[in-house]
Amino acid sequence: MWYMNCSTYMNVWLLFVFLTLPLTLALKVGFYGKTCPNAETIVQQVVQQRFATDNSVTPALLRMHFHDCFVTGCDASILIDSTSTNQAEKAAGPNGSVREFDLIDQIKSKLEQSCPQTVSCADIISLSTRDAVTLSGGLRYSVPTGRRDGLISRSNDVNVPSPSFTVSQAQQAFSNKGLTLNDMVTLLGAHTVGVAHCSLFQNRLSNFQGSGAPDSTMDKSLVTKLKGICGSNPNVDPTAFLDQNTSKVFDNAYYNDIKNGKGVLQIDQELALDPISANLVTNMAVASDAQFKQNFAKAIVKMGNIQVLEGTAGEIRTNCRVFNPKKELEACDC
Predict the structure, then answer these.
(1) Residue (of 309, 289, 293, 313) closest to 301 by Cα position
(2) Local confidence band at 21 (pLDDT 50, 70, 90 cut-offs)
(3) Pairing with 117, which of 17, 165, 278, 321 sits 20 to 30 Å away (CA)?
(4) Residue 148 near residue 122 (C-beta atoms within 8 A)
(5) Which residues make up the binding site for Ca(2+) 2 (predicted)?
(6) C-alpha span between 34 and 145 (Å, rounded)
């Protein structure tokens, strides 16, 4: 009778599990060092060219990165175009203002010329966001790469935190993705270069929560300023800066704004008012600019690790807007 002792059986079982699992490689800085040495340089050059003509590319890419990672993970699912049989993430309401898809296309095209089927669209989002933040005055942080692109993109999956969330609601949404309250407060610091459409805060200017009056926590001069920007035409939806002083510079001025009642979005203002986050806002406001940038870099790298696909999972798209064609199995007599 064939017989194995427990130790031998366990070793064989572990070997079987190891051999049948898909290969998984941890993200690492310089992942493309050998397979595409110029990858990060190519990304940086294209982003720099766009930034030179439109510095609003920074908040646009930050928003894209956030909205991608918070759905099915950082897998570039937000880049997929809808088809007649599938409404992709782009079609979801919260993603209506996400832009710079053409910039990602430009970067991908150059990378495919240099290193075909090598650099993922998911990594392009993370790298281009880093480069845009740097160009706006932020820290040039190291981005671990090695992500692969997802195979699913559905509008019904989109459920990102709303700007009208309470701090507790937002905290739960971030916690669900493995991010702490401190991470959340730090990442919302990206609003230092952000803008918001008037429709997202219009209720705070005149009829907050059905009161018939502006939100009492908002600075009165800011209310007047925003009313002038937004106007009264319901068919027009302008944008307003979320940072009232250095709106195009990546710094910690945003935190001083919200401490002084100058938060534009409801969640921004509540960060400074809610006891669970107020101390963190104060710490960010009094921190050195360099410290804020270091904290932000650490938090966004952590966000970039949410539910990533690695190894043999997913795919490396040749076109970021569409999934790769499925390979048909060759007919055989086996």
Answers:
(1) 293
(2) very low
(3) 17
(4) yes
(5) 192, 243, 246, 251
(6) 13
Distances (CA, A) of 195 to 81, 153, 248, 317: 25, 26, 10, 31
DSSP letter, residue 257: H
For residue 333, how many other CB atoms are within 10 A of its CB?
Answer: 3
Positions marked active-site = 67
- Lookup: tokens for 231: 């106007």
More confident residue, 25 or 267: 267
What H or E segment, with its residue span, contains residue 230? helix 220-230
Q: Dihedral of CA 96/98/102/107: which sign?
A: negative
Using CB atoms within 10 Å of the CB of residue 69, give its burial: 0 to 12 exposed, 13 to 18 middle, 19+ buried: buried
Q: Provide the residue type at 174 as one letter.
A: F
Q: What is the pLDDT of residue 18?
A: 38
Q: 144 by DSSP, 3-state: which?
A: strand
Q: Name the residue with tokens 């963190």.
A: 280
Query: Can you list the positions of beta strands (E) in the chain?
Result: 28-29, 144-145, 195-197, 239-241
Reported pTM: 0.89
85 is in an annotated binding site: no
Q: What is the pLDDT of residues 77-99, one digit of tens each?
A: 999 999 999 999 999 999 999 99
Nearest residue to 66 via CA among 181, 221, 182, 183: 183
Query: What is the phi-psi region of residue 140: left when phi exceeds 0, alpha when psi lies from -120 to 50, beta otherwise?
Result: beta
The rounded percent of the chain whose pLDDT value lies above 90 is 87
Q: Is 118 annotated as a binding residue?
A: no
